[in-house]
Structure formats: structure tokens, C-alpha cells
């Protein structure tokens, strides 16, 4: 399925960007994520470490937990994860343990990105699961959202 003028990845990333916007409205770093299974969004969420007082409450972790509950399985074998920022090492590890076959992210993270910006966890041949990674989908929209958020915080 493709939409006029949009790829399927762009379509789903728009949903993740909406989640990121909601996170920003809640005072969180605006990172959003969704999990897609059989062309249906089964989990969606945003960063919540600040409000939940939980350093592991990244958007990716939130939606992996929801998707596992939705599918009654900790292995998300036929799912695609969309996230607006390149995952960190913690999230990359969770993605691998969930056996996510495909990850699509928007903006690269030059400070903590674990998909090639700082380290590439998914290319490590000694690990037993390998996720296909696609970066840069709607990257400029995600980057602008993050820049605006941090710019506003610096003003305050």
C-alpha cells in the first residue's frame, strides 16, 4: 500500500511524528514511536522518562512493551518499529531482544545513536539477531521538532 506522493514508511513515520509532538507538549524530549503489525498500528507512544521518573521510558521501550502485550508475545517477529530519532544503545538492545525484523527511524543522533552515528549495534556479527535498519525517513521534520524543543528550553 502506498499513498499518493508518500511511501508507506513516510505514512507511518507521520504517525510517529505526531506522537513526538504529543511528547513535547508533555515536556518530554519529542521522540515518538509506533509498532506496525500486518499494516496496522498496534502500539504508539512517546518519550516519558521525565514524567515517569524512569530512565528506561524511551519511546521505543514504551511501544515495545505495548506491542508485546497486544500480541501476547515478547518476540515481535513480524513487526516494524518506526521512531523519530535514531535509537540509543539501550533501545537497540531492546529492539534486538524483541526480534524486531525492521526498524525505520527519522533523524540521526550524533550523540547517542546506535544505528551508525556513534556505534552500529545492528551490524555486530557476533550478536544473534540482525534487524534491517532504514534511516532518514522524514528526518528534516523530526530534526526541526527537536531543534525547536531545545531552543524553547534554552530560552526558559
Give me a quick take on this structure:
It contains 5 helices and 5 strands; from the N terminus they run αββααβαββα. With 156 residues, the protein is α/β, with parallel strands linked by helices. The protein has a 5-stranded mixed beta sheet.
Which helices and strands occur, and which strands form pairs?
Layout: H1 8-25, E1 32-37, E2 40-46, H2 49-52, H3 59-71, E3 79-85, H4 89-97, E4 102-107, E5 132-134, H5 139-155
Rounded to an integer in angstroms, the radius of gyration calculated over CA atoms is 15 Å
Main sheet, how many strands, which sense, barrel?
A: 5 strands, mixed
Q: Helix count? A: 5
Q: SSE order in H/E notation?
A: HEEHHEHEEH
* Mean pLDDT across all amino acids: 95
Helix content: 25-40%
- Pairing-aware structural class of the strands and helices? alpha/beta
Q: Into which percentage range does the β-strand content fall? A: 15-25%
End-to-end distance: 44 Å
Shape descriptor? globular
Give the strand line-up of the largest sheet: 2-1-3-4-5
Number of DSSP E strands = 5
Low-confidence stretches: none
Walk me through the structure.
The protein is α/β, with parallel strands linked by helices and 156 residues long. Helix content is 39%, strand content 19%. It has 5 helices and 5 strands. The protein has helices at 8-25, 49-52, 59-71, 89-97, 139-155; strands at 32-37, 40-46, 79-85, 102-107, 132-134. The chain has a 5-stranded mixed sheet. β1 and β2 form a beta hairpin. α1 (8-25) runs parallel beside α5 (139-155). The protein is globular. The mean pLDDT is 95.
Amino acid at each position: 500500500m502506498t499513498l499518493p506522493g508518500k511511501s508507506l514508511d513516510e505514512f507511518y513515520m507521520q504517525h510517529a511524528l505526531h506522537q513526538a509532538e504529543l511528547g513535547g507538549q508533555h515536556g518530554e524530549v519529542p521522540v515518538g514511536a509506533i509498532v506496525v503489525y500486518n499494516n496496522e498500528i498496534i502500539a504508539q507512544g512517546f518519550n516519558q522518562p521525565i514524567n515517569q521518573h524512569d530512565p528506561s521510558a524511551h519511546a521505543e521501550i514504551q511501544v515495545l512493551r505495548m506491542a508485546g502485550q497486544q500480541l501476547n508475545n515478547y518476540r515481535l517477529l513480524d513487526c516494524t518499529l518506526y521512531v523519530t530519532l535514531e535509537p540509543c544503545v539501550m533501545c537497540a538492545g531492546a529492539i534486538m531482544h524483541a526480534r524486531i525484523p525492521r526498524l525505520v527511524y527519522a533523524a540521526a543522533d550524533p550523540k547517542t545513536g546506535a544505528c551508525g552515528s556513534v556505534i552500529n549495534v545492528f551490524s555486530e556479527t557476533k550478536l544473534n539477531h540482525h534487524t534491517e535498519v532504514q534511516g532518514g525517513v522524514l528526518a528534516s521534520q523530526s530534526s526541526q521538532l527537536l531543534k525547536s524543543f531545545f531552543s524553547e528550553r534554552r530560552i526558559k
